[in-house]
Amino acid sequence: MKKIISLGLLLLGVGMMGVSTVAESVSQYENPVFEPVLADPTLIRAEDGTFYAYGTEDDWGDGAGPHLIPILRSDNMTEWEYVDDAFASKPDWKEEGGLWAPHIAYHQGTYLLYYSMSTWGDPNPGIGVATASHPAGPFQDQGPLFTSEEIGVDNSIDPMFFVDDGKPTLIWGSFHGIYGIRLSDDGLKTEGEKFPIAGNAFEAPYLIKRDGNYYLFVSLGSCCEGESSTYHVAVGRAEAIEGPYRDREGNDLLHSNGSPVLVGDQEAEKEKRFVGPGHNAVFRDDDGTDWIVYHGIDPTNPYLLGGATRRPLLIDRLRWKDGWPQVEGLVPSTEPMTGPVWK
Q: What span, in angstroms and rounded, lies between the C-alpha atoms of 227 and 220?
C-alpha cells in the first residue's frame, strides 16, 4: 500500500521587529497520487491555498456513470479527494460528444473552465467554456468558442488559456497543428486571426513563461491504447508567444518532434511501471520548484471496467539544466519522493 506522510516544518527568522515564524508544509508521495483515473489533468490553487484538479470525462465504474469533468481537491498536491463534477448535465451546443481535456484558469475574478467536446473520429469537435465563482463550481456553461469547421483547424480540442502581457490567448490543437488565437478581455470570445506555433505531431499544448522565454509542452504518440500506449511529453522554447518554438538543437516545432521531457518506461519488463505519460500541466511550488502534473498508465491495470484506458494522476519534479526542463531519468517516478513545498 502506498504511504503518504505529511510533515509540518517551522521556519524561524529574526527581523528588526523580533522573531517571526513561517509554516512550511512538505509531503512525501508515491505515484499515482490519485486513481482510478484523472486523464488530461489541469489544476489551480485557490485563494485559500487549496488545490483543485479537473480531468476528462470517464466512467470510473463507481455506479455514478460518466463523471462530467470530475473535480478533485487537495491541500498539498499529493493527496487528492473527489469533490464533484463540473457539470450536472452535458452542455447541449453539440448533439453528441464527451467532455475532454479541460483547462482551468482564474481571470478577472472568475474561474474559467475551457473544455473540448468530441467523440473518437469526430469530424467537427469544438471547444467550449464555462464559468464559476468558486473552483468547486457550480459551473455555468457559456457555450462554444468555436468548432473545428468554424476555426478552420481539424480536430480542434485540448484548449489551454494563457495571459500574455495582459492579453488572454487560447492555445489548442490535436495532431493537426498547434495554434493560438487572442481572446476577448473576459476570455469568452475569440478575437483576431489564429496563428500556428507547432506541427502535426502534437496535441495537449501547455505553455509557461520562465526567465523571459516561452516553453511549449506538447504530447506525442498514442494516449489511449492501454499498456501499448506510446504517449510522451516534449518541449520547445521561443522568445515570443507566436514563436518560433525550437527544440534544443534549434529545429522549429513546426517540423521537429521537440526535446524530450517525459517518456514511458517501455523497456525491461521487471522495471516497467508506467507507460504513456502525458497531457501535462506545470505548477511552481512556494520553494520555486516546478512540477509536472500528468496522467500515466499502469500496464498491470490498464483499463477501466467500461474498456477505456485507465489513466491515473501522477506528478514529478521538473529539473532545469541549461534552460531546458526534464523529469529525472525521463520516466515517471515509482519510489517514494519528497513532494512540493507550500508555505
A: 16
For 315-333, b where at least 16 C-beta lie within 10 A, e where not — what string?
bbbbeeeeebbbbeeebbb
Distances (CA, A) of 22 to 8, 12, 49, 339: 11, 7, 15, 18
* Three-state secondary structure call for residue 9: strand
pLDDT tens by residue, 44-69: 999 999 999 999 999 999 999 999 99
Q: Which CATH class is domain 34-338?
A: mainly beta
* C-beta of residue 291 within 8 angstroms of C-beta of residue 261: no
**Single-letter amino acid code for the residue at 252:** D
Whether 233 contacts 219, CB under 8 Å: yes
Write the pLDDT tens digit of every residue in 133-185: 999 999 999 999 999 999 999 999 999 999 999 999 999 999 999 999 999 99
pTM over 0.85, yes/no: yes
Beta pairing, strands 51-54 & 70-74: antiparallel
Alpha-helical regions (H) of the chain: 148-151
Residue entry with cell 512550511: 24
Report domain extents, the chain. Answer: 34-338
Cα separation of 85 and 332, whole Å?
A: 28
Distance CA 149, CA 139 (A): 26
236: closest CA among 248, 223, 228, 224?
248
> What is the set of active-site residues?
40, 203
The residues pairing with 208 across neighbouring beta strands, listed in sequence order, are 215
